[in-house]
Write a structure and sequence with these properties.
single chain; five-stranded mixed β-sheet; ten-stranded mixed β-sheet; 2 domains; 278 residues; mainly beta
Length: 278
């Protein structure tokens, strides 16, 4: 009889241990406190989806506000310093790092029309919460201008859009053809960039301007980042907001911070959050 009681006691202890472990496992799960968001950029020319043609094409798909026809053979821009904000004080600031090691580049993105892999910016490590606003820099600020080699999308030798150390990066690049341009092959090249303001010290015009542009956009609706919710705001960019009023017969060869200043002033107005997937 004593043996039976001992066996029963052992079985009871084992059962209680299993139950206790099971409850502890359910009550103390491993929780994550950050989530993700995918920011998608869609480029348009007025109400037309942007299409890039081959260099030399005379297929003029688009028309500006003056009736001048043009096409695009190259288009893109840099995005950096992304920040998300929410109605209850939520805040996410994308980590920034410029490095010679391409794998260590953080916070810099290059949206290149014709390369769909660049249209989506995948943000990670976002604190759980609600968000209703995105802010970003259009271009590459001083912290991305480094002496010596720079890797990834900032690497000049690998396709980075760069003038020189004084002028810095081309933040927003437009190339194509127009029947209004009298240049060889009716070329149009509008490169908007520059990273510092240097006032002229004499009677000569100012040459260097900081043409980085802060873009701040409200979402069309408040979205939630959580373990199970990964929202995706779609940002539309309309090129006609930038060059719609340009005279392509004369404004077709922009290659300096000073020459691009007037265009840079219009960049922020070219972007809008069209809709958001929750």
């Amino acid at each position: 009889m004593q043996n039976v009681k001992q066996i029963f006691s052992i079985i009871t202890i084992v059962i209680l241990s299993i139950v206790s472990y099971s409850c502890q496992d359910k009550e103390d799960p491993t929780l994550t406190t950050t989530g993700e968001m995918i920011v998608k950029f869609d480029n348009y020319v007025g109400n037309q989806t942007m299409v890039v043609d081959e260099v030399g094409s005379t297929n003029y798909r688009y028309t500006n506000n003056s009736g001048q026809k043009f096409n695009l053979t190259r288009f893109g821009y840099y995005i950096s310093h992304i920040k998300l904000e929410g109605p209850n004080g939520e805040l996410f600031i994308d980590e920034m790092n410029a490095s010679a090691d391409a794998n260590q580049i953080k916070g810099y993105y290059q949206v290149v029309q014709g390369n769909s892999e660049t249209y989506n910016i995948h943000l990670k490590g976002i604190p759980h919460g609600q968000y209703n606003k995105i802010t970003f820099n259009l271009g590459v600020r001083e912290d991305g201008i480094q002496e010596g080699a720079v890797g990834g999308i900032l690497d000049r030798a690998a396709g980075g859009w760069f003038w020189n150390w004084n002028s810095g990066f081309i933040n927003y690049i437009i190339e194509g053809h127009s029947d209004a341009s009298l240049r060889d092959d009716n070329r149009v090249q509008i490169h908007i960039g520059g990273w510092k303001n240097i006032p002229s010290g004499d009677s000569t015009p100012q040459r260097f301007f900081d043409n980085n542009v802060d873009v701040s956009l409200p979402f069309d609706a408040t979205v939630t980042v959580s373990n199970t919710l990964r929202p995706s705001p779609h940002i539309m960019m309309d090129l006609l907001k930038v060059i719609g009023d340009a005279d392509l017969s004369t404004e077709n060869n922009i290659h300096s911070p000073a020459a691009g200043k007037a265009f840079a002033s219009k960049l922020a107005g070219a972007f809008v959050v069209d809709h958001t997937h929750q």
